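sorry for the late reply, my laptop died twice this morning and i had to redo everyting from scratch. anyway the thing you sent over, i finally got around to it. pasting the sequence first so we're on the same page, its 285 residues, then the predicted structure underneath. double check i copied it right bc i was rushing
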Amino acid sequence: MLEALHTPWFLSTAVTLLGLVVGSFLNVVIFRLPTIMEQGWRRECCELLDQETPTDRSISLVFPNSSCPNCGVGIKPWHNIPILSFVFLGGHCAACGAGISWRYPLIELLTGILSLAAALTFGFTWELTGALVIIWSLVALTAIDVDTQLLPDSITLPLLWLGLLFNLSGTFVDLNSSVLGAMGGYLALWSVYWLFKLITGKEGMGYGDFKLLAALGAWFGWQSLPLIIILSSFVGATVGIGLVLIQQRGREIPMPFGPFLAGAGLLCLFFGDRLTGFYFNAVGF
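ok and here's the structure:
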């Protein structure tokens, strides 16, 4: 079996299928984790204020079983096969016929494609394991941030510590660069946050953005931080201006920054050395 994993076509196929399955699970994480967080906050507030604890049914990532949000009927295992079930069901619930969001198969497909790209890039190595952790985490964080403008600590903090752990042996960068990347990533956006708040009296971003950049710094080192910040800021500003001009979106409406950090992080994962080298050459380092 291990010998077969060294075969490019077998490894690519196995990792792609794994990515599709994980993508299906990420849909659950994206949908349920904000609710789990909200339930936890309500319980903590009630305990702090010495009030009766809410009686809402607690949920987790594995309980209860997935069900149709329209009719509440449980989804059968054979109706939950990544992408194929959506195609065979025509994009509708098997029980009530309600439409199923296209985002579910798109998340599965995106996760599968990025997982395949990682397998082709890194082969059967520890780098592949780390790359899959990064990819799956960033996909979940992006969708959650788009929906709720939250970047859960339950994903960003483990991602940060895992980056340091993988780089104990220099998997992506040496440990010194990893530690400095984590520190620099957090402090960079923390400084921008407080500078912006002192000047305008408003909060320009959330603490989750600091933690996500710190996690990316832990994985890719301090050398990657200027590139990640420049890419994410440029694309974020371009998208923001486009929304204002095209959709007449109000300037006061907040826009999540996490997806742009995640996109820049994925670029560093696949093209980091070339992009960082180009950047340092351009600025004369």
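The two ends are 46 Å apart (CA to CA).
thats about all i looked at so far, will dig more tmrw
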